[in-house]
Amino acid sequence: MQIELIPTLDHCIESTAKKEYHRLTLEYLGGKGPADFEDKVDLLRTFLETSDFRQLRKESEAELLKEKTVKFILRMDKGEFTYQMVVG
User: Confidence band (pLDDT; 50, 70, 90) for 27?
Assistant: First the structure.
C-alpha cells in the first residue's frame, strides 16, 4: 500500500500529510471512506509521528523554489514503513 503526498510552497509536507489524514477521517465518518481506510490512516499516522519535518521541509522547499514538482511516496509493506521524496 502507498500514499502519495504533493507539498507546495503554500502547504509544506507536514501540513499536506495532516490535511490528507483529516480528509480520510471525514470521509470515513461520512460513510464514504475507502476500504483500506485503517491502513491508510495508520500509514499517515506513522509518517506524522516519526518524520523529521524540519529536514523534510528544508529539502522539499529547496526543490520547490527551483520550480520543481515534489512528491512524497509513503509505503507500508509487510509492516515496514518507508517513504521517498521524488523530484520531477
Answer: confident
| 63 vs 22: CA distance, rounded Å | 26
CA–CA gap between residue 66 and residue 81 (Å, rounded) = 29
Q: Where are the domains of the chain?
A: 2-87
Beta bridge pairs of residue 2: 75
Q: Looking at per-residue confidence, does 25 or 85 come out higher?
A: 85
**Residue 25: partners with Cβ closer than 8 Å, 6 or more residues away:** 41
**Cα angle for residues 20, 24, 27 (degrees, 5° grid):** 140
Distance CA 21, CA 26 (A): 9
This prediction's pTM:
0.88
> Are 37 and 48 within 8 A, CB to CB?
no
The tally of CA atoms less than 13 A away on the side-chain side of residue 12 is 12
